[in-house]
Amino acid sequence: MSGAGAAMRRVFVDGERAELDQPRAAELAGLAARVRELTEAVVHTDVDAAEVAAVSEEIAALTRRLAAARRAAPPIAAPVPGAPHIGRQLANPVTGPLNPIAPPVEIHTRPDRTVFCDFTLTSVYEGPPGFVHGGVSAMVLDQLLGAAAHAAGAPGMTAALDLRYRRPTPYGVPLRGEAEATEVVGRRTHTAARIIAPDGTVTVEATAVFVLPRGLTPEALGNVE
Ligand SMILES: CCCCCCCCCCCC(=O)SCCNC(=O)CCNC(=O)[C@H](O)C(C)(C)COP(=O)(O)OP(=O)(O)OC[C@H]1O[C@@H](n2cnc3c(N)ncnc32)[C@H](O)[C@@H]1OP(=O)(O)O
C-alpha cells in the first residue's frame, strides 16, 4: 500500500489519532474562531508601533500557554456511523472548524450524490486587489471535488486538478460551490466543480481526477454507502 494509503488506514481505521467528542471539538472551534478574528485584525490594523509591540508580546505569551499541552498531530472527530471519514478532519485547511486558516467551508451532500457549499471568504484571502487569491479558490475546489468523489462512493487522492479562472472571484460576499463525479473508471474518479458569484456568474471551473490509493477500499474510508 502507498504511504498515503497506509497513513489513512492508521488514522481512520487503526485509531492512531486522538478522537475528540463534540463538546471538546466545539470548545476548540470557538478558539479557532477567535484566532480568525485576530488574523483579520492583524491584516487591517493601524495601531501605533508601541501597541503593535505590546500586542505581539501578549500573543507570544498566549501561544506559549496553548503549547503547554501539545498533541503530536492534529486530532480528528469521533466517527459518525455512515458518514465519510473526511468529515472527521477537524483541522482540514478548508473545512476544519479547529483550523484558524480554514474559512471554514461546510460541504453538504444532496440525495443525488452531488455536493455543494455556501461560503464567504474575507479579505485575508485576497490575491489580486479586491478579489480572491487563485490558489485559495483552487484549495476550496480541490476539497469540494474530493467530497464529490467521496459522495459518489469512489473516493481518492487528487491525481490531477485543472482550473479555468473565468472571472475574478469577489471576497466578502456569499459564494456557492458545486461539484459532482462525472465518471468512475476502476480506481479513478473524474469530477467537475465550479464557484458561482452572488449574481450567478461562474468565476472558476475545475475538473479533477481522484485515484484511490492501492490497498484501500472506499469502505475503509468510511464512505457514505
Ligand atoms: C483516499 C481518500 C482520502 C480522502 C480525501 C478526500 C478529499 C480531500 C480533498 C483534498 C485531496 C488532496 O489534496 S490529496 C493531496 C494531493 N494529492 C496527492 O498528494 C497525491 C499524490 N499522488 C499519489 O500519491 C499517487 O500518484 C496516487 C495515489 C494518486 C496514484 O498512485 P497509484 O495508486 O500508484 O496510481 P497508478 O497505479 O499509477 O494509477 C492508477 C490509475 O489512475 C490513473 N492516474 C494516475 N495518476 C493520474 C493522473 N494524474 N491523471 C489521470 N489519471 C491518473 C492511472 O492511469 C491508472 O488508471 P488505470 O490504468 O487503472 O485506468
Provide a concise account of the structure shown.
The chain is 31% helix and 24% strand. It has helices at 3-13, 22-44, 49-66, 134-151; strands spanning 19-20, 76-77, 107-109, 115-120, 157-165, 174-185, 188-196, 202-211.
Structure write-up:
This protein is of the alpha+beta class. The protein has a single domain, classed as Hotdog Thioesterase (Thiol Ester Dehydrase, Chain A), CATH 3.10.129.10. Helices cover 31% and strands 24% of the residues. The chain contains four helices and eight strands, in the order αβααβββαββββ. It has helices at 3-13, 22-44, 49-66, 134-151; strands at 19-20, 76-77, 107-109, 115-120, 157-165, 174-185, 188-196, 202-211. It has a six-stranded antiparallel sheet, covered by helices on one side. The protein is globular, with a radius of gyration of 19 Å. Belongs to the THEM4/THEM5 thioesterase family. Its EC number is 3.1.2.2. It is an enzyme of class 3 (hydrolase). It comes from Actinomadura keratinilytica. This is Acyl-coenzyme A thioesterase THEM4.
Q: Whole-number average pLDDT?
A: 94
CATH architecture label name: Roll
Query: In CATH terms, what is the fold-level topology?
Result: Thiol Ester Dehydrase, Chain A
Could you tell me how far the N terminus lies from the C terminus, measured between alpha carbons in angstroms?
23 Å
> What is the strand content?
15-25%
Major sheet: size, sense and barrel closure? Answer: 6 strands, antiparallel
Number of self-contained structural domains: 1
Q: What class, by secondary structure content?
A: alpha+beta
Under the CATH scheme, which class? Alpha Beta
CA radius of gyration is: 19 Å
What is the name of the CATH superfamily? Hotdog Thioesterase
Outline, from the CA principal axes? Answer: globular
Protein name: Acyl-coenzyme A thioesterase THEM4
Pfam family, one: 4HBT
Catalytic activity: decanoyl-CoA + H2O = decanoate + CoA + H(+); (9Z)-octadecenoyl-CoA + H2O = (9Z)-octadecenoate + CoA + H(+); (5Z,8Z,11Z,14Z)-eicosatetraenoyl-CoA + H2O = (5Z,8Z,11Z,14Z)-eicosatetraenoate + CoA + H(+); tetradecanoyl-CoA + H2O = tetradecanoate + CoA + H(+)
InterPro entries: HotDog_dom_sf, THEM4/THEM5_acyl-CoA_thioest, Thioestr_dom
